[in-house]
Design goal:
With about 240 residues, the protein is an alpha/beta fold. It contains nine helices and seven strands. It has a seven-stranded parallel beta sheet with strand order 3-2-1-4-5-6-7, with helices on both faces. About 50% of the residues are buried.
């Protein structure tokens, strides 16, 4: 087990399952102590923390709805009390409710933008003071191939994930001189509960003939946490679905 991220504190939003859980475990395997944020899945968050502890790292589960500014403002202080100041932030939390142009409502649009995009802004703003004080930080945000080619979920999801890329570009440009990098990961279909709820997605539609795994996405997140020269980039890991 590598320990090159030893001493670093990571906060992973939506870290109780799926891609978030895989990233939390991979960061722990690389030496980080991990705060697992979740909204409602208490048992899964506790199980993720226990798996992190079995790797010999500290872990804490923190319940907060990151679409709510008042709850987000408390997050870094909670992480600091339990583990230490946030050095690595993974903006992973998201929702994907399939809607067409004809069926989407304004409420669904607003909710998706709040959870998938505004939350990344809120949590990053809250965590930045710790990174700036240390002169070191990593902001890693989960976008989607839908940001680049529309996808199958709907306009609300595609727009929210495209916004992640723009937000990443801004933070990267503004923070590079302070030792803080900002990058996005744009996965294609990944074998998670979210993909299972979208029957429109079929493994045979991908050039590689299969969905990705959460562990494959997590490998990229660890790379970005380790590397201080990669910033402002969108890392496409999509089985050839979108060629850049």
């Amino acid at each position: 087990m590598s320990d090159d991220l030893a001493g670093k504190i990571a906060l992973v939003t939506g870290g109780s399952r799926g891609i978030g859980r895989a990233i939390a475990l991979a960061l722990a395997a690389a030496g980080a102590e991990v705060a697992v944020n979740y909204r409602s899945r208490d048992s899964e968050a506790r199980e993720t923390c226990e798996a992190i502890r079995q790797l010999g790292r500290q872990a804490v589960a923190i319940r907060a709805d990151i679409a709510r500014p008042a709850e987000v403002r408390q997050l870094p202080a909670q992480v600091r009390r339990e583990l230490g100041p946030v050095a690595i932030l993974v903006n992973n939390a998201g929702i994907a409710t399939a809607r067409t142009i004809e069926t989407i409502t304004e409420q669904e649009w607003d909710e998706t933008l709040a959870v998938n995009l505004t939350s990344a802004f809120l949590v990053t703003q809250a965590a930045l003071p710790d990174m700036r004080a240390a002169g070191w930080g990593r902001i890693i945000s989960i976008s989607s191939v839908a940001a680049q080619m529309g996808g199958v979920v709907g306009p609300h999801y595609a727009a929210s994930k495209a916004g992640i890329i723009g937000l990443t570009h801004y933070y990267a440009a503004q923070l590079a001189g302070e030792g803080i990098t900002a990058n996005a990961i744009a996965p294609g279909p990944v074998a998670t509960d979210m993909a299972a709820a979208l029957p429109q997605l079929r493994p045979e539609s991908l050039p590689v003939g299969r969905f990705g795994t959460a562990a494959e996405i997590a490998e990229v997140a660890v790379l970005l946490a380790r590397n201080g020269y990669i910033t402002g980039q969108t890392i496409n890991i999509n089985g050839g679905r979108y060629l850049d």
